[in-house]
Structures are given as C-alpha cells and as structure tokens.
TrEMBL record:
<dbReference type="InterPro" id="IPR043129">
    <property type="entry name" value="ATPase_NBD"/>
</dbReference>
<protein>
    <recommendedName>
        <fullName>tRNA N6-adenosine threonylcarbamoyltransferase</fullName>
        <ecNumber>2.3.1.234</ecNumber>
    </recommendedName>
</protein>
<feature type="binding site">
    <location>
        <position position="184"/>
    </location>
    <ligand>
        <name>substrate</name>
    </ligand>
</feature>
<dbReference type="InterPro" id="IPR017861">
    <property type="entry name" value="KAE1/TsaD"/>
</dbReference>
<feature type="binding site">
    <location>
        <position position="171"/>
    </location>
    <ligand>
        <name>substrate</name>
    </ligand>
</feature>
<dbReference type="GO" id="GO:0061711">
    <property type="term" value="F:tRNA N(6)-L-threonylcarbamoyladenine synthase activity"/>
</dbReference>
<keyword id="KW-0408">Iron</keyword>
<keyword id="KW-0012">Acyltransferase</keyword>
<comment type="similarity">
    <text>Belongs to the KAE1 / TsaD family.</text>
</comment>
<keyword id="KW-0963">Cytoplasm</keyword>
<feature type="binding site">
    <location>
        <position position="307"/>
    </location>
    <ligand>
        <name>Fe cation</name>
    </ligand>
</feature>
<keyword id="KW-0819">tRNA processing</keyword>
<feature type="binding site">
    <location>
        <position position="112"/>
    </location>
    <ligand>
        <name>Fe cation</name>
    </ligand>
</feature>
<dbReference type="GO" id="GO:0005506">
    <property type="term" value="F:iron ion binding"/>
</dbReference>
<feature type="domain" description="Gcp-like">
    <location>
        <begin position="26"/>
        <end position="313"/>
    </location>
</feature>
<feature type="binding site">
    <location>
        <position position="279"/>
    </location>
    <ligand>
        <name>substrate</name>
    </ligand>
</feature>
<dbReference type="InterPro" id="IPR000905">
    <property type="entry name" value="Gcp-like_dom"/>
</dbReference>
Amino acid sequence: NKNIYILAIESSCDDTSAAVLCNKKALSNIVATQKIHEEYGGVVPELASRAHQQNIVPVVHQALAKANIDKNQLSAIAFTRGPGLMGSLLVGTSFAKSLSLGLNIPLIEVNHMQAHILSHFIEDDTHKTPKFPFLAMTISGGHTQVVLVENYFKMEVIGESLDDAVGEAYDKSAKILGLPYPGGPLIDKYAQLGNPKAFPFPKPKVEGLNFSFSGLKTSILYFIQKETAKNPNFIAENLNDICASIQYTIINILMDKLKKAVKQTGIKQIAIGGGVSANSGIRKALEEAEIKHGWTAYIPKFEFCTDNAAMIGIVGYLKYMETEFSDQSVTAKARYIL
Ligand code: KG4
Ligand code: ZN
C-alpha cells in the first residue's frame, strides 16, 4: 500500500495555512496569523488578501520542510474553495491551481465547513474519532451551524445563525467592554473568575434549531451604556461578573439548541469545531451533558479547531481515495453551501 501525500492550502479568512498529510496523519500544519487586523477590531478583507499573497509561499515552504517532504513526492494538492472572503480565497485557489499544473498532480477543492467537521478524522493518538451518524456544531468567528453528519460526504445543515456568528458575538461584546480583538478568549478568561448570574441578559427567541446573536450584543451595549452613565468605573469594577454573565448566556443558547437537536434526531454523538471550541464554558457544559444526558462529546485539539490547512488536507485525502478531483476551470466560491 502506497502512502498518499497531500499538500493542503487554507486562505479563506485571515489565516494563511499550509499542511502536509501522509494519509490521515498531519506531518505539518503551519499557520501564519495576520496581526494587522488587531488595530481595526476585525478582519479587513483587502488587507487580508494582501497578507495572504505575502505569506503563501513561505508558509508552503515551511510546511514541506517541517514534513520533510519534497514537492515531487506529493500525490495531490487540496485547497479551500469556499466559503470565505473572495480576495482571500483567490490567493489560495490560484496558488493551488498553478502548483497542481506545474507538478502535474491532481487538484482537490474542499469546502471549508465540511473540513471543520472532518477535522475530527485527522489521525491523532489523543483524540477519539466520532462514529456516524453524529451531530457537528461549528462555532467560530465566521460560523455557527449544527450539522447532521451521515458519512464523510453526506451532511445536512439543520440549524444556523440568522445573523452574527457566535465568535462574533464574543468579539463584539468584548469590543463594547474595551477589550482588544479578538476578545473571545479574554471574555472566557475573566468569565472563569466571575459570577455567571450577576447580570441576566435575555436569550433570543428563535424558531427550531437556528440561532441569533445580534440582539444579545445590543442588550449588552444598552446595559453597559446605562450602567456607565451612573458609574464611569462600572466595567472595571465588574469585569469578571460581566464576562461570566455574557458567557453564561451564550453557552446556554448553544446548549439549548444542541439539546433540541439531540431530541429531534435521537443522536447523542456531538462533535464540535471552530475557534470557540476552545471555550472553557462549552467544554464544561459538554462534559456535564456526557454525564447527565449520556452524550459522547468530541472536541478536537485546539490546533485543528481554529482555521488550519490540516483539516483541508484530511478532506483532500478522503476525496483522493474516491478520485474526486477538480479541473483547472475551478474558481473560488465566497458563498459555498455545505
Ligand atoms: O475558527 P477561528 O480561529 O476563525 C474563524 O473565525 O473562522 O475562530 C476565531 C473565533 C474568534 O471569534 C475568537 O474570539 C473565538 O474564536 N475564540 C473564543 C475562544 N477562543 C477563540 N471564543 C470564546 N472563548 C474562547 N476561549
Ligand atoms: Zn473556519
């Protein structure tokens, strides 16, 4: 049995990443995070695509070097076709197309959302692999979805955010509190020191398995404006309690919908992915649900939770085994439904 070597490229948002996989194992997974967006409080698309152009060649070189693989050993190139920012996607897509042409090896397009879910199948001794069918919840700065996963290639979105993504809710709340971008990890850090019931925020009423986070952001803004008018030091004096209350509300929103999805499908295997999977509140809530409701929760290694090319590589490998290749006419797709 011949080893398959996949070079994978991810450039959908603000991280430039390249990885080399040998079959299902990641030999390297290099991520260049773009610091430039910090001072703007969010990702600036034009700056992101320029940074991808600067980063892509060195990142690919590093991924090959770290894996100790020569480009002539590669079996195929996998890349993120979408969804994401058009200018960012174009950099990875054109690079992958050219390299596949130059090396005369197959080109494999990958849906970024499918990759977040299939990241659970990257071979890793410390991580158990979910069994089909399972429910996947992707939670990040760009996505909030609940997906029914029947097999590698058959997935159905059964719930998603109608407005902001959950990571955005974290980051925008953090901005209101004067915390730097991305504020999610900071809210999580302070939340662990505060009282989650100090300040009750309303939960949105959304039908079915869909989510909404924009109302929460507005109620936090009004609350902070009202309290700081009375006491200019309100935020500083209550930061831990405010963060704990925000976190409590967000985690409740996520867990309510997950419970509903489990009830609706009868599936108790829950896999999460995306940057917010690092959150201590969601991890704790899932651990509790394992005991209380008999769920099995799968949480990937942090390196595979946030945007990375190894997750693109695992989909590349699985598609390679099915000889599902793209041709040179393939183009980037900003809106790319799962
Ligand atoms: O997956 P990711 O790296 O990029 C995409 O947005 O696709 O996710 C980044 C998001 C940011 O919104 C960040 O604030 C959030 O994940 N995040 C967290 C935590 N760590 C990262 N949010 C809450 N708690 C955390 N510990
Ligand atoms: Zn992502």
